[in-house]
Amino acid sequence: MTETAKPVRRAGHGEDTIYWDATKKTYVGAVSMGHAANGKRRRPKVYGKTKTEVRQKIRDLKKEMEAGVKAPVHYTVTEAVNDWLERGLKGRDEKGTIGKNRTMATKHLTPFIGKAKLKDLSADDVDDWLDERAEYLATRSLRDLLAILRRSIAHAQRRDKAARNVALLVTAPEGRPGRPSKAMNVEQARAVLTAARPSRLYAYLVLSFLGGVRTEEARPLTWDHVFLKPKDGIPPHVAVWRSVRKHGDTKTRRSRRTIALPKMVVDVLEDHMQRQQEERKAQGEEWDPAGRVFTTRSGEPLDAANVRRDFRAIIAKAAKASGIDLKPQEWTTRETRQSFVSLLSDHGVPLETIATLVGHTSQATTEAVYRKQLRPVITKGAEAMDVIFGDEGEGADEGDVVADSAGA
What we know:
Low-confidence stretches: 5-14, 243-253, 361-377, 392-408
CATH topology of the largest domain: hpI Integrase, Chain A
Shape: elongated
Order of helices and strands: EEEHHHHHHHHHEEEHHHHHHH
Number of strands: 6
Structural class: mainly alpha
Mean pLDDT: 79
């Protein structure tokens, strides 16, 4: 007796269907989404190599529709990143934050996973990409890259271009060892400052080494924020209120601080001011007391790349003259600030005091200085530097400085 074949059940009205499209040689899933406002049936389609793949895509599509999100089919990772860079970082510094993120994305993100459609991107894809980059990048850079991807997808989500953020499911792997943070010892710092003495960068480096000022804070510093001869018993000081960042703000609110100046810094800045006045007079220009402290010969603002180049030339000169082991290409100007911290720490100054000097803790010094109060001017760094770089027999007794700092 011949067994009767069971009839193939056809999908009922309003049900989803999956079928083979011989023309496109792929499975098609037709999803029933009711009717649009014009009465036309809404039945979007998804495609896949297998029925299992199509069923998963149908489930994902329904979740998107339930969440009110309909991710564009062809919206890529590159488009998401570019949209975030163009629209998600408004008000940020083009050369700083935006430029850094764009460079990172262009070199290490979009060439590798940029062509992937955002709706199809998986956590495994992100893991594989980061693992491959880990052979070439430091751990910090890998974390920065992952942050770029996360923020780009989050930006797409806020514009209904992505249903979920798979980058949040991923942890950055360990990468190559990063560039170690370095600091000069007192012999190296002395040799560099000696070599810098004939240079226009001398006062800049003295303030950086002995004051702990960030290079981005030193470059825009103006004379109206430098108080070499204040009244009412207030020690000489500098108001670190600006940087070269967007809108001139310091790195953080806590970075806005007022610090006392060591005697060596005061003397060098006084000589620097006099030379600058003479230069302006020779050029037939009026000296502006609100002008920049550090400029080029033509009065233009210092450029970070030029400062770094001149600094390395000074290091090379110092190494040759002193015989001290200093490799110019291994040093950057930002490490003058790290040297400042290291020198004070070696001298016995408590870390709490050092953190205050470099702007890592909250100090209400700005307003206090203008109220002619002595104590809010942070003096511990100046006192210690007077001992470290002062002539023998002059300045405060080293033991007194350490003891006074310990009690701060």
